[in-house]
Known about the structure:
Elements: H1 3-42, H2 48-85
Helix pairs in contact: 1-2
Amino acid sequence: MTEAELLDVARSAMLTMLELSAPPLLIGLAVGVVIALFQALTQIQEMTLTFVPKILATFVTLLLLLPFMLRTLIEFTRSMLDRAAHGG
């Protein structure tokens, strides 16, 4: 395996990781901002108020995106196995 092929595999792995992790993280971020805005407007400073909605939103996002995530991981694994079978 040459250096260019190794960099291509690393780039592909990082892009796949970013593609899979971005939606739940962005949903958690958006829910966190909305809750923080709500807390700032109402002056409610309850710590547990931020955790439960973010966890629920992230969990629902993962459930909804599970087919997409699984398909993406299968395609990535197949491409890596094809690359390994053909010698790099």
